[in-house]
Design brief:
By secondary structure, this protein is of the alpha/beta class. It contains 6 helices and 6 strands, in the order αβαβαβαβαββα. A 6-stranded mixed beta sheet has the order 1-4-3-2-5-6, sandwiched between helices. The longest helix has 18 residues.
Length: about 200
Protein backbone atom coordinates (compact mmCIF):
# COMPACT_ATOMS: atom_id res chain seq x y z
CA UNK A 1 0.00 0.00 0.00
CA UNK A 2 1.58 3.30 -1.02
CA UNK A 3 1.90 6.31 1.28
CA UNK A 4 -1.07 8.21 -0.21
CA UNK A 5 -3.41 5.24 0.25
CA UNK A 6 -2.19 4.67 3.83
CA UNK A 7 -2.68 8.35 4.63
CA UNK A 8 -6.19 8.32 3.12
CA UNK A 9 -7.13 5.16 5.04
CA UNK A 10 -5.81 6.61 8.31
CA UNK A 11 -7.62 9.91 7.67
CA UNK A 12 -10.92 8.13 7.04
CA UNK A 13 -10.49 6.05 10.20
CA UNK A 14 -9.80 9.18 12.28
CA UNK A 15 -12.76 10.94 10.69
CA UNK A 16 -15.06 8.03 11.52
CA UNK A 17 -13.84 7.94 15.15
CA UNK A 18 -14.28 11.69 15.56
CA UNK A 19 -17.79 11.68 14.09
CA UNK A 20 -18.92 8.78 16.27
CA UNK A 21 -17.83 10.39 19.53
CA UNK A 22 -18.58 8.73 22.81
CA UNK A 23 -20.62 11.17 24.87
CA UNK A 24 -24.25 12.15 24.61
CA UNK A 25 -25.43 15.51 23.33
CA UNK A 26 -22.12 16.33 21.67
CA UNK A 27 -22.54 18.66 18.73
CA UNK A 28 -21.29 17.20 15.47
CA UNK A 29 -20.89 18.91 12.11
CA UNK A 30 -23.79 18.29 9.74
CA UNK A 31 -21.52 17.61 6.78
CA UNK A 32 -17.93 16.55 6.63
CA UNK A 33 -15.99 16.84 3.40
CA UNK A 34 -13.31 14.35 2.46
CA UNK A 35 -10.55 15.28 0.04
CA UNK A 36 -10.18 12.63 -2.71
CA UNK A 37 -6.95 10.65 -2.49
CA UNK A 38 -5.74 11.88 -5.88
CA UNK A 39 -5.56 15.52 -4.72
CA UNK A 40 -4.67 15.03 -1.08
CA UNK A 41 -1.30 16.37 -0.02
CA UNK A 42 0.74 14.22 2.34
CA UNK A 43 0.64 15.39 5.95
CA UNK A 44 3.41 17.73 7.03
CA UNK A 45 5.55 16.93 10.01
CA UNK A 46 4.55 18.77 13.17
CA UNK A 47 6.74 19.04 16.22
CA UNK A 48 4.91 18.27 19.44
CA UNK A 49 6.55 19.39 22.67
CA UNK A 50 5.80 16.89 25.38
CA UNK A 51 5.62 18.05 28.95
CA UNK A 52 6.89 15.96 31.84
CA UNK A 53 5.15 12.72 32.75
CA UNK A 54 1.84 13.44 34.45
CA UNK A 55 1.60 11.76 37.86
CA UNK A 56 -1.32 9.36 38.08
CA UNK A 57 -2.53 8.36 41.53
CA UNK A 58 -3.66 4.74 41.57
CA UNK A 59 -6.72 4.23 43.76
CA UNK A 60 -8.70 1.32 45.14
CA UNK A 61 -12.49 1.16 44.84
CA UNK A 62 -12.96 3.43 47.87
CA UNK A 63 -10.08 5.77 47.02
CA UNK A 64 -12.15 8.40 45.22
CA UNK A 65 -14.13 9.22 48.37
CA UNK A 66 -10.84 9.65 50.22
CA UNK A 67 -9.44 11.99 47.55
CA UNK A 68 -12.61 14.10 47.57
CA UNK A 69 -12.51 14.31 51.37
CA UNK A 70 -8.93 15.62 51.17
CA UNK A 71 -10.22 18.57 49.08
CA UNK A 72 -12.83 19.89 51.55
CA UNK A 73 -12.79 23.68 51.66
CA UNK A 74 -12.18 23.87 47.93
CA UNK A 75 -14.41 23.73 44.86
CA UNK A 76 -13.80 20.41 43.09
CA UNK A 77 -14.29 19.59 39.43
CA UNK A 78 -14.23 15.81 38.91
CA UNK A 79 -14.03 14.70 35.28
CA UNK A 80 -14.46 11.09 34.11
CA UNK A 81 -12.65 10.44 30.81
CA UNK A 82 -11.14 7.80 28.53
CA UNK A 83 -8.46 7.94 25.85
CA UNK A 84 -10.89 6.45 23.30
CA UNK A 85 -13.42 9.26 23.82
CA UNK A 86 -12.85 12.16 21.37
CA UNK A 87 -15.28 14.39 23.26
CA UNK A 88 -13.33 13.77 26.48
CA UNK A 89 -10.02 14.64 24.86
CA UNK A 90 -11.39 17.84 23.32
CA UNK A 91 -12.51 19.19 26.72
CA UNK A 92 -9.30 18.44 28.64
CA UNK A 93 -7.53 21.59 27.36
CA UNK A 94 -10.49 23.60 28.70
CA UNK A 95 -10.06 21.97 32.11
CA UNK A 96 -6.35 22.82 32.04
CA UNK A 97 -7.22 26.48 31.39
CA UNK A 98 -9.85 26.51 34.14
CA UNK A 99 -7.30 25.24 36.64
CA UNK A 100 -4.73 27.85 35.54
CA UNK A 101 -7.27 30.63 35.94
CA UNK A 102 -8.88 29.56 39.21
CA UNK A 103 -6.44 27.49 41.26
CA UNK A 104 -5.65 30.58 43.37
CA UNK A 105 -9.40 30.97 43.99
CA UNK A 106 -9.67 27.48 45.47
CA UNK A 107 -10.47 25.26 42.45
CA UNK A 108 -9.20 21.69 42.36
CA UNK A 109 -9.52 19.75 39.09
CA UNK A 110 -9.37 15.96 39.19
CA UNK A 111 -9.36 13.66 36.18
CA UNK A 112 -10.48 10.05 36.61
CA UNK A 113 -9.31 7.85 33.74
CA UNK A 114 -11.77 5.01 33.09
CA UNK A 115 -9.54 3.01 30.75
CA UNK A 116 -9.27 -0.63 31.76
CA UNK A 117 -6.38 -0.89 34.22
CA UNK A 118 -5.00 -4.04 32.59
CA UNK A 119 -4.85 -2.34 29.16
CA UNK A 120 -1.31 -0.97 29.27
CA UNK A 121 -1.59 0.39 25.71
CA UNK A 122 -4.58 2.56 26.62
CA UNK A 123 -2.82 3.79 29.76
CA UNK A 124 0.31 4.63 27.75
CA UNK A 125 -1.75 6.46 25.13
CA UNK A 126 -3.50 8.36 27.91
CA UNK A 127 -0.18 9.39 29.45
CA UNK A 128 1.15 10.50 26.04
CA UNK A 129 -1.97 12.60 25.47
CA UNK A 130 -1.73 14.23 28.91
CA UNK A 131 1.94 15.02 28.32
CA UNK A 132 1.14 16.46 24.88
CA UNK A 133 -1.46 18.88 26.26
CA UNK A 134 0.70 19.51 29.35
CA UNK A 135 -2.02 18.51 31.80
CA UNK A 136 -1.64 20.32 35.10
CA UNK A 137 -4.14 18.66 37.41
CA UNK A 138 -4.46 15.54 39.53
CA UNK A 139 -5.08 12.33 37.58
CA UNK A 140 -6.58 9.21 39.15
CA UNK A 141 -6.88 5.66 37.81
CA UNK A 142 -8.26 2.49 39.34
CA UNK A 143 -5.58 0.03 40.38
CA UNK A 144 -7.42 -3.03 38.97
CA UNK A 145 -10.42 -3.95 36.87
CA UNK A 146 -12.28 -5.09 40.00
CA UNK A 147 -11.56 -1.74 41.69
CA UNK A 148 -12.77 0.11 38.59
CA UNK A 149 -16.03 -1.85 38.52
CA UNK A 150 -16.64 -1.28 42.24
CA UNK A 151 -15.67 2.38 41.99
CA UNK A 152 -18.27 2.93 39.24
CA UNK A 153 -21.11 1.35 41.22
CA UNK A 154 -23.59 4.03 42.21
CA UNK A 155 -22.51 6.46 39.48
CA UNK A 156 -25.35 6.60 36.98
CA UNK A 157 -24.39 7.88 33.57
CA UNK A 158 -24.65 6.63 30.03
CA UNK A 159 -21.49 7.84 28.36
CA UNK A 160 -18.42 10.01 28.55
CA UNK A 161 -17.33 12.64 29.34
CA UNK A 162 -18.94 13.22 32.72
CA UNK A 163 -18.19 16.16 34.99
CA UNK A 164 -19.27 16.55 38.61
CA UNK A 165 -18.89 19.75 40.61
CA UNK A 166 -18.56 19.81 44.41
CA UNK A 167 -18.96 22.84 46.66
CA UNK A 168 -16.50 23.79 49.40
CA UNK A 169 -18.41 21.64 51.91
CA UNK A 170 -17.77 18.56 49.75
CA UNK A 171 -21.36 18.27 48.52
CA UNK A 172 -21.94 17.24 44.91
CA UNK A 173 -24.02 20.06 43.43
CA UNK A 174 -23.84 19.72 39.65
CA UNK A 175 -23.57 16.96 37.05
CA UNK A 176 -22.72 17.84 33.44
CA UNK A 177 -23.11 14.98 30.99
CA UNK A 178 -21.28 15.43 27.69
CA UNK A 179 -18.80 17.99 26.41
CA UNK A 180 -20.15 21.37 27.55
CA UNK A 181 -17.19 23.59 28.47
CA UNK A 182 -19.35 26.74 28.86
CA UNK A 183 -21.65 24.99 31.35
CA UNK A 184 -18.64 23.63 33.25
CA UNK A 185 -17.03 27.08 33.42
CA UNK A 186 -20.28 28.74 34.53
CA UNK A 187 -20.80 26.11 37.24
CA UNK A 188 -17.24 26.48 38.53
CA UNK A 189 -17.37 30.28 38.59
CA UNK A 190 -20.72 30.23 40.40
CA UNK A 191 -19.37 27.90 43.10
CA UNK A 192 -16.18 29.92 43.52
CA UNK A 193 -18.25 33.03 44.30
CA UNK A 194 -19.89 31.24 47.22
CA UNK A 195 -18.04 31.38 50.54
Amino acid sequence: MNAAKRWTAASLLCLALCCLGCGRKVERPSQVGVVPATTAAPPTAKTVVLGPAVPVRSIKHDGLAEVLKEQQGKVVLLNFWSIDCPACLSEIPELIELRKEHEKDGLVVIGLNLDTPENALARDRGQAFLRGVQANYLQLAASSQKDLEQLLMGWEFSGLPQTFLYDRAGKRVKHIEGNYPKAIRAGVEELLKQS
